[in-house]
């Protein structure tokens, strides 16, 4: 800033002490900052400071406060990320704890800008107090500020967490929303490394989360279960739960659900929790805790709209891996009844349930989502036999039944049907069934039928599989390959345009 402008800035700052001149001086500063590039004003702002501006926030006139916030925001925007905090650290500590939410928002925005630009831009331990003050804002009554504080605290440098987590204990004395914010941070950082998980566990945060499942606040319990699900799929997470007996405590809560009048709200959360663990560690869960899946199977049999959707999603998720399929099959008649129920829901249920059931069945049929299945490591023959038997529960003529569902007029049902068809065609028996179904290939190759983008892509995936299958004769394979070469969105109109342009 040229000397003349620096003098103007100093003069305007000086007039802020006189109440009658304050609005005019603030507007003068705002106009000055608006018209000057950062390179010309940063030195003056840094040298003269912002303390007088900060003092203008402590007035009763909300218009003056808003104007002061605008001026301070302009000041901060002239600095590179982190530099405003470095130059005015004490001022920022004051702003972060200010009684007015617009002021706190102004300060926390600058902390977020620093962290998202470079988590290490504010070195530890020089700015640990800023991080602690920001973390404590997860209890802020302004939900927007609280969520921004959560986002910042989840992404701090690892060196900040011993102090930050220690100071966050006070938030556990606040309401359930604030405690859930703490738990979200704990779960997020604990999944980053074993060291950070151990820090959280040593500070008893994980133990406290599980203890809070005894709360009478159902929504709070559901939120905790959702967070625990994310943590439990990590090796160090599940190992801790098992080793310290915490998993057994959670199982105890499941057994008590039958006597809970609010079980319809809680069962989905518990199913999702154990479903996430069983997806990643099926053998460990099924060997020692198979009884927990009685709740899952009961939900599928019940037709209860409060729990059925999550039960279908959970069963399909567990069954996407080969080991999951084998563990489910080992349950015998319990699982067989569940498969029959899913087939029944595919044929006779409302649209939402039908879509969920189709996607569940696709998970039970699919093998491509299991990373253990490769060209050099083919599918276990037991899975081939089992999936074929499960598919036959759909109908006496299961492929014809699926063919009919693929022609359903509802887009979401058709897409789910193509997803199931793709899963079935991951098996040779599925490709052979398609080959034997009169008119099915012609239906797949018919581009005159209008689908959504997602359904077109799902159908294209099926055709790509079939084009490589030995189940079809050379003529069909050529037609399938032509479709693949043309892509999922080719139409005859493209060809007509190309021919006209060629003429």
UniProtKB/TrEMBL annotation:
Official protein name in the record: Uncharacterized protein
Organism name: Mythimna loreyi
